[in-house]
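ok, trying the design again with the full structure, not the truncated one.
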């Protein structure tokens, strides 16, 4: 199962969760756990209220404006 148990706990030890996003393609195993752990959950796919944001493709992550929109900075 992804992400592995302890992933978000380890990430929070190294990264301020409120300044980072977690991008995934599954609501239940990617986005919801990210949000529950203080990260912004970004869904690759159709928008849903369970995700903080959504994008159509990971290719959008190469665009600075998209990064700023996702991180709120």
């Amino acid at each position: 199962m992804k992400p592995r148990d302890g992933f978000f706990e380890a990430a929070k030890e190294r990264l301020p969760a409120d300044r980072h996003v977690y991008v995934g393609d599954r609501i239940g195993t990617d986005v919801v756990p990210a949000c529950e752990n203080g990260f912004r959950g970004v869904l690759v796919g159709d928008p849903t209220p369970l995700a903080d944001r959504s994008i159509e493709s990971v290719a959008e992550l190469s665009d600075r404006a998209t990064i700023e929109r996702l991180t709120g900075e």
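Keeping the full-length input from now on. The longest helix spans residues 27-36.
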